[in-house]
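Hello forum,

I keep getting stuck at the same step: I have a sequence, I want structure tokens, and every attempt I make locally crashes halfway through. Rather than fight my setup again tonight, could one of you with a working pipeline run this one for me? It's a single chain of 423 residues.
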Amino acid sequence: MSQVKPILLMVTSQDWGGAQAYVFNLALEMKSQGLPVIICAGSAPTRDDSLGQKCHSAGIDFIEIKHLARNINPIDNFLALIELIKLFRRVQPRAIQLNSSMMGAVGSLAGYLTKVPKIVYTAHGWVFNEQLPNWKKTLYIWIEKISARLKHVIICLHDQDLELAKKHGIKPRQKITVIPNGIDAITFEKNLAGREEACKTLSEIAALVGLPRNDNVSFDVGRGVLPFAKGGRTLGFLLHATCYMFCDERRGTLVGTVANAYPPKNLLWYLEVCQAVHAKDPDIRFVIAGDGPQMEELKAKHRALEQEEYVLLTGRLDPAGIYQAFDIFVLPSSKEGMPITILEAMAAKLPIIATDVGACRLMLEPDAGLIVPPNDLSTLTQTILDLTDDADKRQKLGQQAYQKVTQNFTWQNTADQTIKELL
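Reply #2:
Ran it on my machine without issues. Output:
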């Protein structure tokens, strides 16, 4: 009896984000159904939270595509194409499922040349919707149009992206369809850290960030002690007095954002919103959790605006450990698909403010969150201030968000429909 050929789930980057969570969770579901599956992604630094490391921990087969990169680079793109052709010839997949624009273009060409039986592409928001020069938008549209002819199925996450595909003539060989993203909201809620623990985590980070940099300092936050060793002298510093200061409810509202520092997340602009809100209500504090290529630029602007006292940049951490510390969740993106962080915030019963991009309006309206125009500083500023002053509305929005995500955006539905397209 011949061995069942695997399905390859493929994404450009290993840096953990919405597309990586989608691929990983899809692989877990396929594995639970006894389907052979392999995840493939570009190279990344060794980190506990990279996609490759998560696959290793979960017992999911993983293959690194060394030359695959996010940006258009003819040499790297060609080498990645050769790499994928060799991989497909060796593995002989029954189907490949592609995520992100670069993997969609290079992967579909390699799949077409090696006659992969089923090529499926999930568009996590069209790249040409980003804030790009017109020539670059046109280039990306043509790449999507041409590569679509090599794909059997294209999956959009919401109707707006489907309409954009039709408008620009993006037509795959068989069909283009809509399968919304989803989340196992009940399980996610059960795994959330409680408010006290979440506040403690953020306040410990705030305490560490506020300390002077010193190569001879070692930190042990777990025991609430920061031992300093310099010049033969050790100073025991108890965090108890400061560990709840950043999250102390007496200090006002805590507004949280979970987003990696990529241009579409609009975090550099969002710091200006934080500044405008702070000028009107100094008691409001902000948390931005995530990492990414713009992180150093974000830190530099954060320092230039002197926001150390009221905006906390946590870096990369598990968002489930901090959601319950937030009073309001804000996603200020200039471009989105169907963001997993909105689904997570809904599952955490948070009142949400999001910009009107991608599927955000579909997810939150009519009564599960607030939608504001993208890049509208005054409107977002005033919406944060208004929601801060209305505790009843915050609670109502959070409850309605949870009800909507558990009823309309279940992960099981997303996984079942996607797997059906691959078989």
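The chain has two domains: 7-178, 188-206+243-408. If your local run keeps crashing, start a new thread with the error log.
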